[in-house]
Amino acid sequence: MTKKLAGLIVFLITVFIVVPWLISVTGRTDLYYVFTSVALLSIASAGVWLTFYIGRINIGQGAYALMGGYVSAILIMYYGWSFWWTLPVAGMFCAVASILIGIPILRLRGVYFAMVTLILTEVMRLLALAVPITNGAKGITSIPPPGPLSIFGFVLVPDFATLQNPRIAFYYLSAVLMIICFALMYRLVHSRIGHICMSLQQNEELASSIGVNIAALRVMAYAISSFLGGLAGAVFIGATQSIYPSSFTVTDSVNFMLNCFLGGLGYVFGPMLGTLVLYLGWNLLFSTGEYQLLIYSAAMIVLMLVLPNGLLSLGAKRKD
Fold first, then answer.
1. Closest Cα partner for 280 from 39, 24, 20, 11?
2. Fewest C-beta atoms under 10 Å: which of 97, 255, 257, 318?
3. pLDDT, tens digit, for every residue of 97-141?
């Protein structure tokens, strides 16, 4: 327990003090956007990890990230909603949509479920191109930055437009949401419901025979997964101030899955580490030009062969 607490303290100090200090010293303020993206993609990847936890291969998280982004953008631009109110609404919208979609498709297993979810991302992209309210291929642009967040007259978060560098604010916002997300995921996995969910991964028939409502648990896990995807997409459009049908594609859905594999499917914090390594690794290889994808793919294959249980298998305990 002491080691876990010490690790948490070091992590929080690194995220909220060390990283901003290093960026300030180096003058690379563009890195705020990089780490903001890592935090938001980690949240979406955490949702994919949760579906893996119940024994389903989810390659459709990009659909819910895109859906959440559009819900937030439409509410802000067309209905004058506050950015802060759109975050839970976007997440809940995606959760409800995933329940309607998940009831029939969650009966599928293995590659069949994976292929159906993969199609979802492309369907969402085509829908965004066709529906008038999304403005088609032109997307929705010039989205205003988040306004102040206050409770009982006390301002918790200032108006981002008044800040000298809003990227710093988005970094802290994304980091806080990421920490809350993974803290809740850790609590869920280590709860009674989490242990029951793990039984679905091992043997659904056996779990059903002892009275576990496996259909309800599958839908619940998929809804939470989609909520996280929608939440990440909603915050992402605030940071970029725009959204297009191509903002989240099939490639992004595949990357969300790879983040989980690389970090470790047996570890709650696997998606966080996997996202950090893959995102930074891809950017670092940018200078290699036409060999970028070749080197990236080869490195991924080697890592999967050497560390089949993910990077966290080097020293962490299972699901810690």
1. 39
2. 318
3. 999 999 999 888 888 899 999 999 999 999 999 999 999 999 999
Range(s) of the domain holding residue 228: 33-144+165-314
Is 258 within 8 Å of 270 (Cβ atoms)?
A: no
Bridge partner list, 155: 150
CB 285 within 8 A of CB 296: yes
Write the burial class of residue 297 (CB in 10 Å: 0-12 exposed, 13-18 middle, 19+ buried): exposed
**What percent of the chain shows pLDDT beyond 90?**
62
3-class SS of residue 319: coil
Find tokens 């180096």 and name the residue.
Answer: 26
Residue corresponding to tokens 């996995």: 189
- What backbone torsions phi and psi does residue 154 show, to the nearest 5 degrees? -95, 120
Q: Is residue 153 part of a domain?
A: no
Q: Give 47-98 pLDDT, tens digit per residue.
A: 999 999 988 889 999 999 999 999 999 999 999 999 999 999 999 999 999 9
In a domain, 13, yes or no: no
Terminal CA-CA length for the chain? 11
Can you state the angle between helices 192-202 and 214-240, rounded to 10 degrees?
A: 110
Does residue 8 belong to any structural domain of this protein? no
Number of domains in the chain: 1
> 11: which 2 tokens?
């992590």
Supply the CATH number for residue 83's domain: 1.10.3470
Do the beta carbons of residue 54 and residue 110 sit within 8 Å?
no
Above 80 in pLDDT, residue 207? no
Q: What is the dihedral of CA 285, 287, 288, 289, to 10 degrees?
A: 110
- Beta-carbon contacts of residue 273 (< 8 Å; ≥ 6 apart): 262, 263, 264, 310, 311, 312
Considering only CA atoms, which of 304, 320, 225, 194 is closest in space to residue 269? Answer: 320
pLDDT at 128 (0 to 100): 94
CB 178 within 8 A of CB 42: yes
Distances from the Cα of 259 to the Cα of 192, 200, 230, 276, angstroms: 26, 22, 18, 8
Mean pLDDT computed over 241-265: 93
Place of tokens 């970029």: 240
Establish if 22 belongs to a structural domain.
no
